Amino acid sequence: MSDNRGRRPPLGAWLRAAIGWLREREPVVLLSLLVVIAATWGFLELADEVLEGDTDAFDKWLVRAMRRDDDPAVPIGPPWMRELARDVTALGSIAGLIFFTSVVAGYLWLARKRHMACFLMAASTSGLLAMLALKRLFGRARPDVVPHLEQVFTSSFPSGHSMFSAVVYLTLGVLLAAVLTKTRLKLYVMAVAVLLTLSVGVSRVYLGVHYPTDVLAGWMAGLIWALVCWLIAHWLQRRGWIDMQMRSRT
To answer: Which of 72-86, 175-189, 198-212, 213-227 comes out lowest in average pLDDT?
Structure first.
């Protein structure tokens, strides 16, 4: 008799096990995993291009295109556009997002969703720390082709406003959409979250404090973080450790 102990399972067994695992997963979970993988690959590829200087020409061209030809200190558009850009970019500031997240977490705490409140604060805080770590890792200089219309104190890649706004708004969006039952409400919530995130990123380029690749990298990194946080929340909910359902009391 031959001894099969210690032999590896055949490839067919691994394949059947993988297919069985996929069948047990929800389609939205699989889609989220695919997006995380694609966005991670995109971020790494973009970071490599930026470090090699392959994006410099495009970055400088687009930043300069948002200023008047005769005066690079004056942005294109009517005079009120500058103030509007500053107002929009404030929606992605660290202080503003921390305050907003704390308000939502406070509401969840009072609504007796204390595990969810703690999870939200942990997701936002870890996203902020990840953003600061990435900035320190890459250390890219700020754009110098036009005068800045806002004071900046950190490095440029990835855009902190873009990444942190994506972390907060998209995380809140996917968590809120998960508890809603009507599709149109889910779409509305996610549309608002995406619109806020995109608007903040565009304002950073308009103000001349970020290259477009900084913003794109921030969006991708924030999306990755938000989806990973949702996957963790979904996994915790399936095991009864947190409850994302918001039940009204009469």
So the answer is: 175-189
Residues 95-120 have pLDDT tens digits of 999 998 999 899 888 888 888 888 88
Q: Which residues contact 165 (CB under 8 A, 6 or more apart)?
A: 91, 92, 97, 196, 197, 200, 201, 222
Contact 208, 148 (CB under 8 A): yes
Segments of the chain assigned E as strands: none
67-73 contacts at long range (C-beta below 8 A, 24 or more positions apart): 67/146, 67/208, 72/145, 72/146, 72/147, 73/146, 73/147
CA distances from 116 to 206, 226, 243 (A): 36, 15, 7
- Residue 23 tokens read as 């069948």
Contact 167, 226 (CB under 8 A): yes
Distances 173 to 54, 141, 183, 198 between C-alpha atoms, Å: 34, 32, 13, 14
The mean pLDDT value of the chain amounts to: 84
